[in-house]
Design a protein that fits this description.
Layout (H helix, E strand, L loop, with lengths): L7 E7 L2 H13 L4 E4 L14 E6 L3 H14 L5 H13 L1
Antiparallel strand pairs: 1-3, 2-3
Length: 93
């Protein structure tokens, strides 16, 4: 089962659903199916805070990592801080 290219794997995690949704949207725009997991626990203030996972198929993982690296600053200059600000702005709408 480890070699199944359709198996979902975690690409990255984000503390806020809006951040994870933006990452997933960029991946989908690039033709990589992406799903979110853990939305109901993200943002809670508890002893074990939750995060939102961005899941992709194992067969898409390497390309997804390249896209994520570009998104986080090595390509288009979008940093985690930029994603935080965009997510907060989206929450205000």
């Amino acid at each position: 089962m480890k070699d199944d290219p359709q198996r979902p794997v975690v690409l990255t995690t984000r503390p806020m659903e809006a951040q994870a949704a933006m990452v997933a949207a960029v991946l989908r725009d690039e033709g990589i199916p992406a799903e979110l997991a853990g939305m109901y626990t993200a943002g809670f203030r508890a002893e074990a805070p939750g995060v939102v996972q961005v899941l992709v198929r194992q067969g898409d993982l390497e390309r997804a990592k390249e896209i994520l690296a570009e998104l986080e600053g090595t390509g288009d200059g979008v940093s985690d801080d930029d994603l935080d600000r965009q997510a907060m702005d989206a929450d205000d709408v």
